[in-house]
Write a structure and sequence with these properties.
Length: 205
């Protein structure tokens, strides 16, 4: 079926052919794991591809994981500051623009240090709830910045270093397989946390 995604994938393949011909990429790269698909978060655009991760050399995986972790944590701190210092001026219009205000209001009604910490970990690992929503909410409710940074390092670093390990140990196909299923892992984690909270509430009752 000649869909828009298939046409884009063909164009991407042609670009990679040209890069190989020019010597910018080594020849014989395995491209079977490269995909073009809709992004999980609609605010990220209309199409997404994992080409960069698939083409990354396994021996660079740890360095790339470190760079991704640092930049992601800094981005999270920026979101915290927007929520803390400029919610009405900056954050609210951004959330409206990306269609995230309803999700934000829902999460805001569930705030509390424990709930925020859980959301930071799950969003950092799997983008559930959306990361930009949770970082802004954390700043708005003045969640402790030190705990915010620590949780971001653990969650985002855990995600990137897991993918780096899988890429180096098992190859591109396994890393891509796990990355595509991060949302399911996040849902399972949330279900487990909610079940444990329900069990403790029942015991206390």
């Amino acid at each position: 079926m000649n869909t828009l995604f298939a046409r884009f994938a063909a164009h991407l393949d042609a670009v990679l052919d040209q890069l190989e011909a020019e010597g910018a990429l080594p020849t014989g790269l395995k491209r079977s794991a490269i995909t073009v698909e809709p992004p999980r978060d609609a605010s990220h655009g209309d199409m997404a591809t994992n080409a960069a991760m698939v083409l990354a050399k396994p021996d660079q995986a740890w360095r790339l994981a470190l760079i991704a972790t640092v930049t992601s944590v800094l981005g999270g701190v920026f979101g915290w500051m927007i929520g803390h210092y400029a919610f009405d001026l900056v954050a609210a219009p951004l959330l409206e623009f990306y269609g995230k205000m309803a999700a934000f209001d829902t999460l805001k009604s569930q705030t509390g240090d424990t709930a925020i910490l859980v959301m930071l970990v799950t969003s950092g690992l799997t983008h559930l709830p959306p990361m930009k929503v949770v970082t802004i909410l954390s700043g708005l409710v003045s969640f402790d910045l030190k705990w915010f940074i620590l949780s971001a390092i653990v969650a985002r670093g855990g995600r990137f270093y897991l993918l780096a390990y899988l890429l180096q140990r098992y190859g591109q196909a396994m890393a891509v397989f796990i990355e595509k299923r991060m949302a399911l892992i996040g849902l399972a984690l949330l279900a487990g946390i909610n079940a444990e909270r329900g069990r403790r509430a029942a015991l206390e009752g």
